Amino acid sequence: MSPKPLPPRPAPSNRETAFTLIELLVVIAIIAILAALLLPALSRAKEGANRVKCLNNLKELQLAVQLYMDQNRGLFPPRSDVVRWPTELLEIYRNTNLLACPTDLKRGVPPANLGATSPKYFADNSLRSYMMNGWNDYFPAAIASNPRQEFSMKETSIVKPSETVVWGEKRHDAQDYWMDLFDTGDNLTDKIQHGTHSNYLTPTRSGGANFGCADGSVRFLKFGRSVNPLNWWCVRDPDRLKYALPLASLQP
């Protein structure tokens, strides 16, 4: 018995397989939707990394100031308009790159201090994103008699070190080195940055900032938390309440 013949193969088609215009538009739409969902998450991840780098910068400064106090009878660097803290601590922290927050640098180059012309004070002219506490509420009489005299804060005089700020992030265009509570315009509202780390390039009230405290800790505080309901820039308990600021008075 002869085998049954196989059916003939279909003739190859000359028509090539291709996407239709509708299919291409659907794929493009899906890619656009995925990009819209992923880009904000990527942006938040990048800013989260920058915030951590900024936090590490402050940890290095915290270590530097602690070593400085160990060598100087427990005194913080003097509040001085001649030798400022970047120069005073330079031999300890050594690398001026840690004076600038990466989030702050994304907004442009912070202004350099034009007053320090001597080469030995080059650290004062470095890109800088941080301000140090000027301890105004602890030395009101000294400041009233001579606003420019030098004085140093003693570490043991701080009664609540875990809630007393030593370092804070400054506004991008501020040139100040010290947070002066009694300065014209009030540094807390126009020089200190309270919401620099957010999901956007510009500071917002939904963001926050990094601070270094007198107990050596470094922490991220939500917008205005360093001055409300108590002012962590003050040393004395009555002043912490007296100089507490409403959130509405702070610039984002």
Give the arrangement of secondary structure elements.
Blueprint: H1 21-71, H2 85-88, H3 90-93, H4 102-105, E1 130-133, H5 140-145, E2 165-169, E3 178-179, H6 187-190, E4 208-213, E5 218-222, H7 237-242
Parallel strand pairs: 1-3
Antiparallel strand pairs: 1-2, 2-4, 4-5
Describe this structure in words.
The protein is of the alpha+beta class and 252 residues long. It has one domain (23-249). 31% of the residues lie in helices and 9% in strands. The protein contains 7 helices and 5 strands; from the N terminus they run H-H-H-H-E-H-E-E-H-E-E-H. It has helices at 21-71, 85-88, 90-93, 102-105, 140-145, 187-190, 237-242; strands at 130-133, 165-169, 178-179, 208-213, 218-222. It has a 5-stranded mixed β-sheet with strand order 3-1-2-4-5, with helices on one face. A hairpin with a 4-residue loop joins strand 4 and strand 5.
How many discrete structural domains?
A: 1
- How would you describe the shape? elongated
Share of helix, binned: 25-40%
Radius of gyration from the alpha-carbon trace, in angstroms: 28 Å
- Give the overall pLDDT as a whole number: 84
So how many helices? 7
Low-confidence stretches: none
Strand order of the largest sheet: 3-1-2-4-5
Strand content: 5-15%
